[in-house]
UniProtKB/TrEMBL annotation:
Gene3D superfamilies: Impact, N-terminal domain, Ubiquitin Conjugating Enzyme
Principal location class: cytoplasm
Keywords carried by this UniProt record: Cytoplasm, Repressor, Stress response, Translation regulation
Subcellular localization, as worded in the UniProt entry: Cytoplasm
Record's GO cellular component terms: cytoplasm
Phylogenetic placement of the source organism: Eukaryota, Rhodophyta, Bangiophyceae, Porphyridiales, Porphyridiaceae
SMART domains associated with the record: RWD (SM00591)
The family this protein is said to belong to: Belongs to the IMPACT family.
Protein name as catalogued: Protein IMPACT
Length: 288
């Protein structure tokens, strides 16, 4: 594995760690290099599913060797799941695929659980794919922890001139989400961000107490699902998080997802009045 692949694997591992936490994501080191990454996926009401990826053979230039274990699936179901997973990433040679693998396995095992239960409240996590745009200018961001109406603006994270900032609001319906986003975009600094990715989870009288969730990449592929996963991990309901990114001119690779996840976690914990566990190795921006 060459130096570039080593760096890409390290960045992807850190991104997964930021999203799922150290209790879920682990790695195997050989000679100071990551050769294997494992993710333990909790499937509600069924148990755990272990996804293991061998990344020692020039990944991501080559696809990783994958293993899947789940005590609630029989051997044939596990073989089918693995075959489908390999087919899912077959055309992704040269790109980071581990988050996509985790998402695929999570969705498939959750579907399996639903098919074995009489009732299941599902939710839509469709991610609209929008055209990506990049801008060279990075404006000053909103004041840290400033509250504008129902909006809470989190601290900033900067990395190689790219700036990330999350915004939080309590929401109780899809219409409320639209109103909050519209209000947020009235701020010219936010409106001029390269991407405004978002996710929300709602369970209220407006939704008849059913869990409704959705996300939007705004051109940053898979970013919305990263935000949504953090909301799920923190048990958030009736919550909307928008993460703004002002592109600084240098591609960040998978590490950008680590910053998106940490910005989300920070603003949610601040909104909930909970202490933050910092897992970011990114450079924290000054309060402006």
């Amino acid at each position: 594995m060459d130096g570039l692949c080593d760096e890409q694997v390290q960045n992807e591992y850190e991104a997964l760690l930021a999203i799922y936490g150290e209790d879920t994501v682990s790695r195997k080191l050989e000679g100071g290099r990551i050769t294997q990454i494992s993710v333990r996926i909790e499937v509600a009401g069924r148990g755990q599913c272990l996804l293991r990826a061998d990344v020692s053979q020039n990944y991501p230039a080559k696809l990783p060797e994958l293993e899947v274990y789940a005590n609630f699936l029989n051997s044939n179901e596990q073989r089918v799941l693995l075959a489908d997973l390999i087919a899912h990433i077959q055309n992704e040679v040269g790109f980071p695929v581990l988050f996509s693998c985790v998402t695929f396995v999570t969705e498939r095992t959750t579907q399996h659980t639903a098919s074995n239960q009489p009732e299941h409240e599902g939710f839509d996590t469709t991610v609209p794919q929008l055209a990506q745009e990049e801008t060279d200018g990075v404006p000053k961001v909103l004041s840290s922890a400033a509250v504008l109406g129902d909006l809470l603006h989190g601290e900033i994270i900067t990395d190689r001139k790219s700036v990330f900032q999350a915004h939080y609001a309590a929401v109780y319906s899809k219409e409320h989400v639209e109103e909050v986003v519209s209000t947020l975009l009235q701020n010219s600094k936010v409106a001029n961000a390269t991407h405004n990715m978002l996710a929300y989870r709602i369970r209220s009288a407006e939704t008849q107490n059913a869990l409704v969730a959705d996300c939007d990449d705004d051109g940053e592929k898979a970013a919305g699902k990263h935000i949504l996963h953090v909301l799920e991990m923190l048990g958030c309901e009736n919550a909307l998080v928008v993460v703004s990114r002002w592109y600084g001119g240098t591609p960040l690779g998978p590490v950008r997802f680590k910053h998106i996840a940490n910005a989300t976690r920070q603003v949610v914990l601040e909104a909930q009045g909970r202490p933050e566990k910092d897992v970011s190795s990114g450079k924290a921006g000054t309060v402006r």
